[in-house]
Amino acid sequence: MWGVSGEVDIAANLAAVRDRVARACAAVGRDADEVDILLATKTVPAEQIAAAVAAGARLTGENRVQELASKADVLAGLPVERHFIGHLQTNKVNQVLRYITCLQTVDSLSLADRVQRRLEATDTTLEVFIQVNVSGEDSKYGIDPDEAGGFAAEIAQRDRLALRGLMTIGAPGPQEVAAPGYRRLRQIRDQLRDAGLTVDTLSMGMSADLEVAIAEGSTMVRVGSAVFGARPS
Ligand SMILES: *Cc1c(COP(=O)(O)O)cnc(C)c1O
Q1: 42 lines ligand 1 (CB under 6 A)
Q2: Could you list the mean pLDDT of each consecutive 10-residue stretch along the chain, which spans 233 residues?
Q3: pLDDT for res 140
Q4: Which pLDDT score, from 0 to 100, does residue 156 have?
Q5: I need a surface site. Which of 13, 55, 94, 139 has the fewest CB within 10 A?
Q6: What pLDDT score does 120 carry?
Q7: 208 CA → ligand 1 middle, Å
Q8: In this predicted structure, what is the pLDDT of residue 139?
Q9: Would the CB of 106 count as within 6 Å of ligand 1?
Q10: What is the model's pLDDT at position 176?
């Protein structure tokens, strides 16, 4: 959606996404309050992020360390939770942790250990999600679904990591293609809860497939292009 000046109308786009979320919830008998909207802000200039926050957004997610650092000053002044949603290399942990409130992409024990040690050194804790590769594509990061239970038990033993959720990137294509993977993520979440872990958040669904993700139980959709327009390729 474009405003009269030819600029992307961020407030209108965000309202449209909220409307999609509300309808998707209504279609499956869920309360719209159960689903948070996280802005995926890669390539988005800080002023546009600020515009979305002015329109009511409360969650942001960055993918790249350099970009996070370059926008950190602006983001720090905004009333938002700052998530990291890209792959994090262990040697970048110290750089990233100072800027974020949640790491959604824990995908190896070596990463978890590095984060734990850093949090011990700074005497803090951090909310984390485990990234699970439900689509089985080699190109994607994430724990194998069959190993997610054991992996979560390991994470729960690291006292500086507050395990709160699971995250996945759905299979590309028409929305229905992602549904089985999203269903699998929800099953894993339910099993972890049955095992006594406090894993509530299901971070799944993006601009193109948030409806199917919500139908499968998503509690956090990550939306970029539907709010900010197409990214430069
Ligand atoms: C870019 C990105 C999104 C949002 O993608 P859109 O299709 O622009 O909504 C969500 N999650 C992750 C991990 C991303 O990198």
Answers
A1: yes
A2: 69 98 98 98 95 97 96 91 97 97 98 98 98 89 96 98 98 93 98 96 98 98 97 85
A3: 86
A4: 97
A5: 139
A6: 98
A7: 9
A8: 82
A9: no
A10: 92
Per the CB < 8 A criterion, the answer to whether 204 and 213 are in contact is: yes
Q: Is the CB of 222 under 6 A from ligand 1?
A: yes
Work out which ligand 1 atom sits closest to the CA atom of 222.
10
Q: Which of 111, 97, 108 is nearest to 68 (CA)?
A: 97
Residue with tokens 């299901």: 202
Alpha-carbon distance values, 120 to 95, 111, 112, 128 (Å) = 15, 14, 12, 15
Residue with the smallest CA separation from ligand 1 atom 13 is: 85
Best probe residue, ligand 1, of 222, 223, 233 (max atoms within 8 Å of C-beta): 222
Question: Hey, which of 85, 166, 167 would you mutate to test ligand 1's pocket, going by the most ligand atoms within 8 Å of its Cβ?
Answer: 85
Residue type, 83: H
